[in-house]
Design brief:
Its main location: cytoplasm. It is found in: Cytoplasm. It is an enzyme of class 2 (transferase). A hairpin with a 5-residue loop joins strand 12 and strand 13. Helix content is about 30%, strand content about 25%. It has about 425 residues and is an alpha/beta fold. The protein folds into 2 domains: about 200 residues, Enolpyruvate transferase domain (UDP-n-acetylglucosamine1-carboxyvinyl-transferase, Chain, Alpha-beta prism); about 210 residues, UDP-n-acetylglucosamine1-carboxyvinyl-transferase, Chain, CATH 3.65.10.10. Strands 24-25-1-26 form a 4-stranded mixed β-sheet, with helices on one face. Strands 2-15-17-16 form a 4-stranded mixed β-sheet. It has a 4-stranded mixed β-sheet with strand order 4-5-3-14, with helices on one face. Helix 5 runs parallel beside helix 6. It is built from 14 helices and 26 strands.
């Protein structure tokens, strides 16, 4: 079993560069299926999820050519040869469901197994399916699969999302980009990853306006051509390094971090007494590890990101006073609580609220990453803890962090990955 072994209590110092965003690159890779000519993505992160989505679209006939040295991937989707995404791939990652929109647009049919991913809540796909039906698709479900068909093509329509789901917004944008007529998505997600997807699609010849607001207007086009695109920096990876530095103490500059995408995280760190400096190239954190309690509540963008909740809860475990953490986006995203308690954290759960009484020091022990962001939270906790922390179930962390050990080592962390 592979483990991270962290000898904690050492301050972090130096510079660390954030990779391209996992949550932006996955839908953009799915969107390459819409192009009749090759697309090139630049600075693609080395993540297990990227490998999985590439396998999914390759199984559908997309030619995927990766240049590891340049961190570039070329996608040639001229010939989509299949419309069914294999179960063994889709079950590994929920984002695989994002191929349904492009398949409907290009081939008028898609058969995809119900998706997998982190077990952080139900995350139903009904918003996706209702939207596809509004665009004229027929939906059938059975044997763990969803079959969507639109043999006459998709038709533009007005769609209201009951919740501003990022995945549903992305899937509908991709499907509607080649639909007949105009589509209006109301109560759309506003995340930066949506804006990045639309930037890529518009460079391919799509006609999409309003990305980054809650109303997106799409005029369908007949054909999209491939384009070259550099994916935005990963705001969640950036936020994780900010938390790590704030907890362990030290002076860390996070390069390629866009403060515009991290306003609630930066605001809460400042409220807790951490020195945070922002400029056009990144964000600097200076901390002595002594911080004050703060309250957070996760919300859709531009609110506090649910993907930073676990890391910030780890941060509050060593804050002076009592903090509250309210999770409103996913109903099962407190699985890291029991692991943090093993390290001496004082946390109690009341439905969707965690109440955290700060302790002077966490104690190193063996813990497991129950999901992607929980794993990141435990790494942050281990860096600040006394003694040795061992983190297991690293497959979760590998899904979303490119070279985590190497980057932390570059900041002076005593961390190794071993196979025991």
């Amino acid at each position: 079993m592979e483990k991270l072994i962290i000898n904690g209590g050492k301050p972090l110092n130096g510079r660390v560069r954030v990779s391209s965003a996992k949550n932006a690159v996955l839908p953009i890779i799915a969107a390459t299926m819409l192009a009749s000519t090759p697309s090139r993505l630049v600075e693609v992160p080395h993540l297990e999820d990227v490998h999985t989505i590439c396998e999914v679209i390759a199984s559908l006939g997309v030619k995927v050519t990766r240049d590891e040295a340049k961190e570039e991937i070329i996608f040639d989707a001229a010939n989509i040869t299949a419309t069914e995404a294999p179960y063994e791939l889709v079950r590994r990652m929920r984002a695989s469901f994002l191929v349904m929109g492009p398949l409907l647009a290009r081939r008028g049919e898609a058969r995809i197994s119900l998706p997998g991913g982190c077990a952080i809540g139900s995350r139903p796909i009904d918003l996706h399916l209702k939207a596809f039906e509004a665009l004229g698709a027929t939906i059938e479900m059975g044997d763990g699969y969803v079959l969507a068909t639109a043999p006459e093509g998709l038709k533009g329509n007005q769609i209201y999302l009951d919740f501003p789901s990022v995945g549903a917004t992305e899937n509908v944008i991709m499907a509607a980009s080649m639909a007949d007529g105009k589509t209006i998505i109301e109560n759309a997600a506003e995340e930066p990853e949506i804006v990045d997807l639309v930037t890529y699609l518009n460079s391919m010849g799509a006609d999409i306006r309003g990305a980054g607001t809650n109303v997106i207007r799409i005029q369908g086009v007949k054909e999209l051509k491939g384009a070259t695109h550099t994916v935005i920096p990963d705001r969640i990876e950036a936020g994780t390094y900010l938390i790590a530095a704030a907890m362990a103490g030290g002076d860390v500059y996070v390069e390629n971090a866009l403060s515009e995408h991290l306003k609630p995280v930066v605001a809460k760190l400042k409220e807790a007494g951490v020195r945070v400096e922002e400029d056009v190239d990144g964000i600097r954190v200076v901390s002595d590890g002594k911080v004050k309690a703060v309250d957070i509540k996760t919300l859709p963008y531009p609110g506090f990101p649910t993907d930073m909740q676990a890391q910030f809860m780890a941060f509050t475990t060593i804050a002076e006073g009592t903090s509250t953490v309210m999770e409103t986006v996913f109903e099962n995203r407190f699985m890291h609580v029991d692991e943090l308690k093993k390290m001496g954290a004082q946390i109690r759960i009341e439905e969707r609220r965690a109440i955290v009484d700060g302790v002077a020091k966490l104690k190193g022990t063996e813990v497991r990453a129950t999901d992607l962001r929980a794993g990141a939270a435990l790494v942050c906790a281990g860096l600040a803890a006394e003694g040795v922390t061992k983190v297991t179930q690293l497959s979760h962390i590998d899904r979303g962090y490119d070279n985590l050990v190497g980057k932390l080592k570059g900041l002076g962390a005593d961390i190794v990955r071993v196979d025991e």
